[in-house]
Amino acid sequence: MPPHPLFVREARGAHVWDLDGDRYVDYVMAWGPLVLGHGDPRVLSAVSEVATRMQVVGTGHPLEYLAAEAVLEAVPHGERLLWSNTGTEAVQVALRLARAATGRRRVLKFAKSYHGWHDTVYAGMSEDDCDRPATPGGPGQSASVLDDLVVARFNDVRLAERLLSEAVERDIAAVLVDPVMSNAGVEAPSPLFLSTLRTLCDRHGVVLVFDEVIAGFRIARGGAAEKYGVLPDLSVFGKAMAGGFTQSAVVGRADLVDQVTSGVVHAGTFNANPIALAAVAATMRVLADPAVHEQLEEISSEFEALVGAVLGSSADFGSLNRVGSLLQYVPAGGATGLHGTSGLWRAILEGMLRQGFLFMPSGKVFLSTAHTSADVEATAEALDRLLRQL
């Protein structure tokens, strides 16, 4: 992480302390999971209680269904759930379910959208990759599996209509979409985009999969389906659902998920380990209180207003995109990037770190219920000082 890796010895609430004992206001939040902040006592107490009884057992245990019920209660389209560990794994499970159900093999994704590091989906990472053969996103990937990938453009309804009208000929099993382009500028869907995808998938026998690893349970208790009123066939969740522990899930239609009882392979030693599921159950209990997302919205709106005002003092400083408690710095010219954003962001990243504020190279900003107005006000003041010097 530029300008240099930060090594942390302690983290509490909205703050981390480095090896020298310097404190930072943390807007990385472990790259998204810590929607309740570091060390939330409600999560840690649940985990500690379970850890004294069992760690990983290789058998069934009550938290498998208690945590699942807590998630399914929140998700509008939740009929069944499969546990996994990471977002990358869960995306692969969802695509396997779609292929098994349709008898097709290809997946339509959207340019710039990140769905994990796996060879089959880490491609089409440039806006220029639309509607042409996909190429590997990095060295060491198998190019042969990318014949299964079709790349469209987010919010381009006409292109989606054309590609999906050829779903049978193209052998398209699934549409895989991040509803808010969490890793590609936090771009919100246009009013008709998600609903059009839903209609097209129904018409052409394609499984609609929402990748909500980042957005899920952060932008709304019920994720994108609640916020935008469009129900996918499957959603992939992770990060925020476990309040800082490693867990993911595939949630959705019973007939799709139940395929694992009739031949579709889904495996993993740690998939439903008691430690992580204790964290899921505790986190979902907290998020069931409407006041929690109201608090997230208030602090995120305040960040957008105060920090956005500082950026807005000059056309050269850039701006902010926001969907709930997920924000993105957008430089003048609009070029954001998964691994690093251009424009002034590098200078802002380094200058804010020196003043005690920790941000991500991509320019994404994660807020939590642990952040306070004082944190946000101090951030805006520090950014104002920095920009006056640039």
TrEMBL record:
Q: Which domain of life is it from?
A: Bacteria
Signal peptide bounds: none
Cofactor(s) this protein cannot do without? pyridoxal 5'-phosphate
Task: Enumerate the transmembrane spans.
Answer: none
Q: GO molecular function terms here? A: transaminase activity
Per UniProt, which keywords does this protein have? Aminotransferase, Pyridoxal phosphate, Transferase
Q: Which CDD domains match?
A: OAT_like (cd00610)
Q: Name one Pfam family in it.
A: Aminotran_3
InterPro entries, per the entry: Aminotrans_3 (IPR005814), Aminotrans_3_PPA_site (IPR049704), PyrdxlP-dep_Trfase (IPR015424), PyrdxlP-dep_Trfase_major (IPR015421), PyrdxlP-dep_Trfase_small (IPR015422)
Q: Does the keyword Transferase apply?
A: yes
Coiled-coil ranges per the record? none
The family annotation for this protein states: Belongs to the class-III pyridoxal-phosphate-dependent aminotransferase family.
PANTHER family documented for this protein:
GLUTAMATE-1-SEMIALDEHYDE 2,1-AMINOMUTASE, GLUTAMATE-1-SEMIALDEHYDE 2,1-AMINOMUTASE 1, CHLOROPLASTIC-RELATED
This protein is called Aminotransferase class III-fold pyridoxal phosphate-dependent enzyme
